[in-house]
Amino acid sequence: MSLHPLDDEDKPAAEEDNISGQGKEQGQDERNYIRQAGWKALFGFTSKKHLGVLSGAIFFAVIAGLILPGQSLLFGLVFNQFANYRSGRISGPALLINVSKYSVYMTALGAGCWFSNALYFMFWLSFGELQARSARDRVFRNLISKDIIWYDMRKNGVGAFLPRVQMQIRELQLSTSQPMGEVFQCLVTGLGSLVLALYFTWDLTLVIICTVPIVYLFMAFLSTRMEPNVHGQGEKLQEALKYVTNAFQSIEMVKSFNGQNSELWRYSRAIKGAATYYIRQANLQSLQMGFMQFATLGMFVQGFWYGSSLVNSGKKNPGQVMTTFWAALMAVQSIIGFLPQLIVLEKGRIAGAKLSAVIAEMQEEGNYPGFVKGVRPQHCAGDIEIKNASFAYPTHPSKLALCDATIFFPAGETTFVVGKSGSGKSTLGQLLLRFYEPSEGEIRLDRHPLQTLDIRWLRENITLVEQHSVLFDDTIFQNIAMVKQESRNVTVDEVKEASQFALLQHVVNDMPDGFNTMVGSKGNAISGGQRQRVALARARLRDTPILILDESTSALDYITRSLVLDAIRVWRSGKTTIIITHDISQILPQDYVYVLERSQVAQEGYRKSIEANIGSPFDAFLSSQVDGVSEVDEPEDDSSNHLLSLYADSTNSVNSQDATSQYSSNPIDPLDAYLEQRESDLPYRRTVFSIPPGTPSQRNSIVPHVASPYWAFMPGAAENVATLAGSFQPYSSRPPPTYKSTISPYQKHRIDNSTETNIQSMPRYGETATRNYSSPTSMRRPRKLSPIRLLDQPVKLETKLRSWKRERKQKLEAEPTLSMTTILFKVWPKLDWISRLLLVAALFAACIHASATPVFSFVFSRLLSTFYIPTNQHSMALAYSLAILAIAAIDGISSYLFHFLLEYCAQVWINNTKMEAMRQLLDQPREFFDKEQNGVSRLAECLDHFAEETRNILGRFTGVIFVVIVMITIALVWSLISCWKLTLVAIAIAPIMYAITTSYKAISGKWEGHTNDADEKVGAILHETFINIRTVRSLTLEETFHKKYINATTNAFKVGLKRAFYSGIFFGLTDSAILFVTAFLFWYGAIVVSSGDFDTTHIIQTFSVLLLSTSYANSIIALIPQIGTAKDAATRFLRLSSLPQTSHEHSGTVRIPSVGNIALHNLSFTYPTRPDQIVLREVNINIPAGRCIAIVGTSGSGKSTIASLLLKLYTTDGGNTRPSSTPEITLSGRNIKRIHTPTLRSLISIVSQTPTLFPGTIAENIAYGLHSSSPYASLSSVRSAATSAGIEGFIESLPGGYETIIGEGGMGISGGQAQRIAIARALVRKPNVLVLDEATSALDVTSAAIIRDSIRRLVATGQERTEAMSSSTFSGSGSGSGRGQRGMTVIIITHAREMMEIAEHIFMLEQGRVIEEGGFEELRQKRGEFARLLRGGECENGGVDDDRIQMGHGWKGKGKDNGD
C-alpha cells in the first residue's frame, strides 16, 4: 500500500470520496442560492445609507452616457455639411463656418464629458468602497457570531476559507465600482443612441436591431453554462489555499521532514483542477465575445442595403441616414465595450452571491449563544457541577469525548484532573466555556444551568490557559493588557505586576524593544515557554473567579514551573481553580483529583487516599512516574531534598547589613530584602508542599493555605505579611487550628465519593523529606544581582528609532510596481512549446481582429459615399453590405480565437508561475517567514487573489492593447494614404494624448498600491481573529478585534476615497480628450476640403478610419484602473517567483551516509530578526554517535535553537564575532555547511513541543515526506512506528483507521494524540539522530512512559552496536565518522526529570552558555545549577535563587517605570 501523495494521480478522486456529506450539501445549497440571486447579488450589501452615493453615481453615469449620443448627433450634422458641400449645395466658406460652429459645440460637449466622467468615476469608486466596507463588516459580524462547531465543519478549514472571502469581497468591490459605472454608461449610451436613431429613421433602426433577440438568447445560454465552472474553480482555489496556509504555518516541520515535494504536489493538483475550470470559463466567454462581434457588425448588412434604398427613394437625406448609422454604431460599440466588463460583473455577481450565501447559511444555523442574552448573576462564587454529561465532537460524532461524567469543582478550591491523552480532560474546559454543549446531562455554575447564563458573563468569569498558548501579532505589553475590556485604561503597573507574577522581567529586558517587542504571528517570535508565561501574565491580569489551567506550564523549566505554580497557589487561594495536567508531582496529598479514562471518570478522591489503592488508575499513573525516579528521589545526603519539597526552610538569618553594604551601589532587590526580613523574623517558613502535622484539610477555607518566599511579591500580599508571620510557629509549639464546618451539599458529594475516611488527620506529604537548618553558619549563597537597567527617555527614543529604521528598511525593500513590458517578458520563459505556438496563433488572430476595424471603416466610408454618387448606388450598397458580412464573420472568429488562446496561455503562465513561486517559497530559509511582509495571510493572498489578477494582464489587457496598437498603426497608414495632412495633424496631437493617459496610469497605479496595502492589513486582522477564534472567544476579545478590524476597514475606505478623487480627475480628462481632438480634426478637415487640397470622399474616409479606431482605442481608458490593479498584483505575486536563491540550505553538496559524531565548537548565534539578542554564546558540545544526551536549562536558554541549527533551519553565521578556522558545527568532522541539506534532514528527525498535523490521512501524516519507494513508507512500518509511539490503539479504534482524515478540514484530535502521531512520524524513518524537543510535555504519564521505553530501547540498541568500537568521550574532538555502524543518536531537550534520567550525558544551558555537563547522578551530586534545577531553584541554604525573579525595577519598553 502506498502512503505518499507522490505515488499516483488517482488520489484526487479517492480524496473526493472522503468529503463529508455535509460539505457537499453546503456546496449544493450555495450553488442554488447563487442561481436564484441573479444580478441583484451585486447590491446585496447596499444599505439605505449608500443610496445617496448610488444615486449620484447613476446620475452622473447617465450624463456621461448621453455624451456619445450627442456626439453621434454632431457627427451626423458635420457629415451632412460635407455631403452638402460635395453635392454643391453649400460653398467652401459656408462649410468652414458651419463646421467651426459644430466644432465649438463638440468642445463644449468635451468639457461636459470631463466633468461628468470625473464625477461618475468618483461616485462609482466610492460606491464600490462602501460595498466592500459593508461586506467586510457583515462578514466579520456574522463570523464572530458563529459557534465553534461552525468553524470545525469548514470543509477546507478556516485558514483557506478566509482568503477566499477576502478575494470575493475584492471582486464584489471591483464589479460595483467603475465597471458597473461603465455598464450604466454603456446602457445609457446604447439607449440614447437607439432613441436618437429611432427619432431620425425609425424604420431603418428597426431593420438594424432585428437580430438582437437571437443574440440575447445565445448569450444567456452561454452564461448558464459558465456558472458551474466559476463555482468549481473557487472550490479548487480554496483547496489550494488550505495546503498553502498549512505549509507556511508549519514551515519548520515541512523543511525538517523534506516535505517540500509533497506540499508542492498537493498544491499542484489543486491549482490544475482550478485551471481546468477556468479554461472552460474562458472558452465560453470567448464564444460570447466572438459571437457578439459577429452579430453587432452583421447588423449593418441589412441596414446598409435598406438605408441606401431610403436615400434613393428620397424619403431620407444622407445626413439623416448618416446620423442613424452613426447612432447605431455608437449603440453597438457600447455593447462591445460592455462585454469585457460583463466578465467582471459576472465574477462580482457570483462573489456577492457567495458572500450572501455564506452569511445566509450562518444566519440560518443561528448565532452562537453569546448573542443571546442570558442570566447575569451579581456574583460568581465558582461552584461547578457536571452531572452525567456526555459529548462527542462534531467532526467525529460516533466517538464520545466525554461519557456520562459526573464531576464537581467546589468554589474557592483547587482541583486536579488527570488522565491519558484523549481521555476527555481538555474537553472539560471546552464545555465549561460553552464552546460546545453536552449531548446529554447538564453543567451547572453556582446552581445555574450553564445554558441559561449569559455567555459573555460566563467567559468574563472563567479564564482558560491552554498548553499551546496563542499570542497575537502585537507587542508583549498589548498581549497582556488587551484582556481588560478597556486595554487603554490598563496601567503600566498592572501589567508589570502581572508580568512579575509570570517571571517575565528577565525575558522582557532581554528583548531589543522590551515590552514594545512584537511577538509575531501566534507569538512565534518567542519561545514556547515565554509564550506560556505571557499567557499566564494575561490570566493574572484578568484575575477571574474561575481559572482552568490545561497543561499551561508544560513548556517551562522546572525552576520557573515550580515558582509559577507556587505563585498560582497563593494567588488562587479562595478561588476556583481547575488544573488539567499530566504532571502528578504538582498534586499535593490534600488536593482533590479526578482521573479520566476512556472519556469517563475512572477515579476521584484526595490524592493521599486514592494513591493508596494499589492497581487503581491513579496508582498506574503514579507507578509510571515513580518507576524511573524512585531511586533518585531519596536523599543521599543532607543537601538533597525531595522533588516536591520546594523552597525548604532555614531558621538561620543572613547578616542583612553586610549584604546591603556589599551592594550599596545597586538597586535593592525587593525579593532579597523580603527573604532577609523573613529569615530574621520567622522561626519557621512553610512551603507550598509542606503542611504542619495535624493540620486539617483547608479545602473549605478561604484563608491562604500556602506561603513561600515568592508570595511576598503577589499583588496585595504586602498587607498580609505581618498577619501570616505572626501566625507561623514551629511544628513543636503550634497547636492545631480549629475550623468551622462549612460543607455545602455540593461539597458533601465529594466527601461521600472519596475513599478518604479522615481528611483532617491526613499526614503531610513528604514529611520525612523536610528538614530544618540548624547550623548558624549555613548561610544562603550570595546572590548575583542581575544588572537591572533603569530605562528612561533616551531608551524610549532608541526603541522608536529602531522601529522607524525597521519600517524604513521595509519601504526600501519594497519593489516598485513593475511595468507592463517587464511583466510580459516573464511570460515566454514560463510557457511550454505548445503554449508558445498557441500564443503566436493568438497574436496572429489579434492582428486579424485589429485589421477588421479599419477595413470596416473603409467599407463604411465607401458605403456612405454612395449616398451622393449619382450612379449605381443600389448595386454598390449591396456589394459593400456583403463585404461587411464577410468582415463580421472573419472578425467574430478571430475575436474568439485571440481571446480564448490568450486566456489559455495566461492560465498556463499563471499555473507555472504559481508552481515556481510555491517552489521558491518552500525553498526560502526559515528566517524569510519571520518577516512581517511574509506572513501567512499575505503569502496566501499573493498566491490566490494577486495571482488571479495577474492572469488578466495577458488574458485580457495585453490582447486589447496589442489590438489597439495594430489597429492604430493600420489606421494611421491608411489615413496617411487617404489624407496625409489631416493624419499628420492627428499624429501631432498624439503626444498630448499620451501624456494625459500616462499621468492617469501613474496616479491610478500609485493609489492602487496604497489600496492593496490597506486591504492586506484588513486581511491580516481578519485572519488573526478567526484563526485564533477560540482564544478570542475565551478572553472575550470579540469587541477588541472588532474595533481593530473596523479601524483597518475605515482606513482602507479612506484610502479608497482618496483614490477615487485623484484618479477621477484624470479619468474624466482622459475620457474627454478624444472629443477635443475630434473637434479640432473636424475644423481642420473643413479647412482642407474648402481649400480643395483633398476631396470629400478622402476626408470622410480618413475621418471614419481615425475616429472608429481611436474610439476603440479609447475603450482602454476604462480598463486603466483594472490594469493598474493587475500591475500592482503582478508586482506582489511575481516577486515570489523570483526570490533570491541564496539560502544557506544550498551551501552543502556532500551527501553523507550517516551523521556520526556531532560537535559544536564555540557556537554563537542570534536570530536574524533579533540581531541584538544573543541566543547562544560560545557553546561547546560533543555528542558521539549512538549515544543519548540531554540538553536542559531554563526556558529561553537556547535549547531548541540548537535543534534548529542541527537541521540547518538557520545558518550559524550570526552571533560569532570572533574569527575561527574551526567550523562551529561538524558532523563526523565535516562542516555542517558543506553537507547536502535534504540528506542531512533525512538522517535527523525531530519531535517538537507543538505537534503539527498536515491535511490528509493518519498514515500520510506518519509517512509525511517519505518517497513512495522508501521501505519506511509501507503500512507495516507505519504501524510499527505507531505502536512505538503508543498511538496504535487509538488509531485502530477509529472507523477509518489509518485512512482517517485529520488536519485542516478533518477530524479533530487531542493535543496528546497529535503529539504521538508526530512521534510516530519521527520514528518511522529510523533516523540516525532523533531530537525530542519537549516531546512528552503534552503526553499523559502512561503515554510518556511508552515513549521513554521506546527511547531506552533505541539507546540500548545503540550501546550494543558501539560495544565493539573504541570508546569516545564527550570531551573528544567529535571527529569520528560513525558511518552506519553505530546506533541511533538521541538528543533530548527537556524539562522533565524522567527524560533527563534516560540520557547518558547531560548538558545544562543558562543564558545561551553551557554551565554544567556530566551524567545525571554526577551532576546531581555536585549540588550545582543542575541540582538546583531539579529541586526547583532552591539555594544551598534553602532560600530561593532570585536570579530569575528580577522584581521591581528596570522594565524595558512601554512598561518601564516612568510609563509611556
UniProtKB/TrEMBL annotation:
GO-annotated molecular function: ABC-type oligopeptide transporter activity; ATP binding; ATP hydrolysis activity
Region named Disordered: 1-29, 1362-1382, 1440-1460
Residue span, ABC transmembrane type-1 domain: 56-347, 840-1125
Chief location bin: membrane
Subcellular location: Membrane
Membrane topology: Multi-pass membrane protein
Name by which UniProt lists this protein: P-loop containing nucleoside triphosphate hydrolase protein
Species of the source: Glonium stellatum
